[in-house]
Design brief:
heterodimer; A: about 250 residues; alpha+beta; five-stranded antiparallel beta sheet; 6 helices; B: alpha+beta
């Protein structure tokens, strides 16, 4: 690993390298891949879906307590990829921001406003010397009153954007390539097609045939905008359908 | 890709080039230097057993406890830097007190574990402070949620477990725990198993003297976390020592 030009410029967040890069922020991105997890999000015509792996590292661990899908408000959910404690901290902050908005203005925070707020907070960590950036990426999903189904991703650099489909984590390059081929310009995917695409993307890049206990799926739909996690039986239905197609 | 920190390990607010925070990893190593603590979650309760290494014969027995009560219904066993852990204990007690003051009831263990984990995680973000060098095991029992066991690491990672061990002989103890069918054992049996594991994994050569600390929170104690009563403690200890001699003699054969 060539460390030539980074010598000395990568110790502190507030130092630019001669090429104008912030090395500590780039290292924070590497931290997202440490866990080896990959998450995929896909937006359909009337639904948004996020899928992530479920690897329980220890036989003694209670699997019910290990999840990467979190509810921020009843209608906004997220999947976290990266360092586990940093993820929980960011989820807490997002929940606080959403509640605070509801308290101050009397209506639910729009999903893009929430994403922007989290991204702005991430940016502060990249400029303040005393704190390090959080090593995690947040993918938010929700149904917006004006704009319909929304999928947004934010990262340690403080960048955020809305997507038709996106992935995060160890295999994000391969997953993004897969998604680019499958998602056409106007994505009119039905709910079932959206879930199938997200799951098959993950199984293709991980080269694994998943069982229903090995993945977690979170969805929001226009008919039912509440963020919910699919039960194992529902996941089985999708997995069987994908297997039969091949 | 260096696995030694050199230069990137001086503060918790620095990432290494491969995206690791070395100060947090070093804090986890600090936990491995202290005596083993084992926690088992069974059918009707949770049991803690701690190998308390005695460094001097001048200590009174029962001094420097490593199992504490956080509120009546939650027990906490600690491993690592004990002074750090006592700070965490105070924070946990504050959380319980505030919850009771706001909501009028016992704090759920899951909620307490998340709050304490977030607190410990906050110390892994700034360069002005260092991470806590201790691992926390929290256990409780109530008739509605059943037995609960949570473990919090210095990084702020917190999960629920069926059984866990932290400290010197963590790996050996976990191997022994995985052999047990924890969901079928009741509290009395758990006590025997936990004590047996502590005696088994205790390193006779490196650390001569140790005291066993046992506590439980289960249906039998009506959901209150308590140190095990003297008669039960002596019975369990005798059983553990006996099974150790039995396995020793089996090995000699």
């Amino acid at each position: 690993m060539s460390r030539g030009s980074s010598a000395g410029f990568d110790r502190l967040i507030t130092i630019f390298s001669p090429e104008g890069r912030l090395y500590q922020v780039e290292y924070a991105f590497k931290a997202i891949n440490q866990g080896g997890f990959t998450s995929v999000g896909v937006r359909g015509k009337d639904s948004v879906v996020v899928v992530t792996q479920r690897k329980v590292p220890d036989k003694l661990l209670d699997p019910a307590t290990m999840t990467h899908l979190f509810k921020i408000t009843s209608n906004i959910g997220c999947v976290m990829t990266g360092m586990s404690p940093d993820s929980k901290s960011q989820v807490q902050r997002a929940r606080y921001e959403a509640s605070n908005w509801k308290y101050k203005y009397g209506y639910e925070i729009p999903i893009d406003v929430l994403c922007r707020r989290i991204a702005d907070i991430n940016q502060i960590y990249t400029q303040n010397a005393e704190m390090r950036p959080l090593g995690c990426s947040m993918m938010l999903i929700g149904i917006d009153h004006e704009n319909g189904p929304q999928l947004l991703k934010t990262d340690p650099a403080g960048y955020y954007s809305g997507y038709k489909a996106i992935s995060a984590g160890a295999k994000q390059l391969e997953a993004n390539n897969f998604l680019e081929k499958k998602v056409k310009k106007d994505c009119n995917l039905t709910f079932v097609e959206t879930v199938d695409l997200a799951i098959s993307c993950l199984s293709t890049v991980m080269s694994a045939d998943f069982k229903s206990t090995e993945i977690e799926v979170g969805v929001v739909t226009v008919d039912n905008p509440e963020f919910r996690v699919l039960a194992e039986s529902d996941i089985d239905v999708h997995l069987t359908r994908i297997a039969e197609k091949d | 890709m260096s696995s030694i920190g050199t230069g990137y390990d001086l503060s918790a607010s620095q990432f290494s080039p491969d995206g690791r925070v070395f100060q947090v990893e070093y804090a986890v190593k600090a936990v491995e230097n202290s005596g083993t603590a084992v926690a088992l979650r069974g059918k009707d309760g949770v049991v803690f057993a701690v190998e308390k290494l005695v460094v001097s014969k001048l200590y009174e027995s029962g001094a420097n406890k490593r199992i504490f009560n956080v509120d009546r219904h939650i027990g906490m066993a600690i491993s690592g830097l004990l002074a750090d852990a006592r700070q965490i204990l105070d924070i946990a007690k504050e959380e319980c007190k505030d919850y009771r003051s706001n909501y009028g009831s016992d704090i759920p263990t899951k909620y307490l574990s998340e709050r304490v984990a977030m607190y410990m995680h906050a110390y892994t973000l700034y360069s002005a402070v260092r991470p806590y060098g201790c691992a926390i095991l929290l256990g409780s029992y109530n008739p509605d949620d059943g037995p609960q066991l949570h473990m919090i690491e210095p990084s702020g990672d917190a999960f629920g477990y069926y059984g866990y061990a932290v400290g010197k002989a963590k790996q050996n103890a976990k191997t022994e725990i995985e052999k047990l069918k924890l969901q079928d054992l009741d509290c009395r049996q758990l006590l025997k198993e936990a004590a047996k594991i502590i005696y088994q994994v205790h390193d006779e050569v490196k650390d001569k003297d140790f005291e066993l600390e046992l506590s439980w929170v289960c249906a039998e104690t009506k959901g209150r976390h308590e140190f095990v009563p003297k008669e039960i403690f002596e019975e369990v200890q005798k059983h553990a020592k006996a099974s150790l001699e039995q396995s020793d003699s089996e090995e000699e054969m």
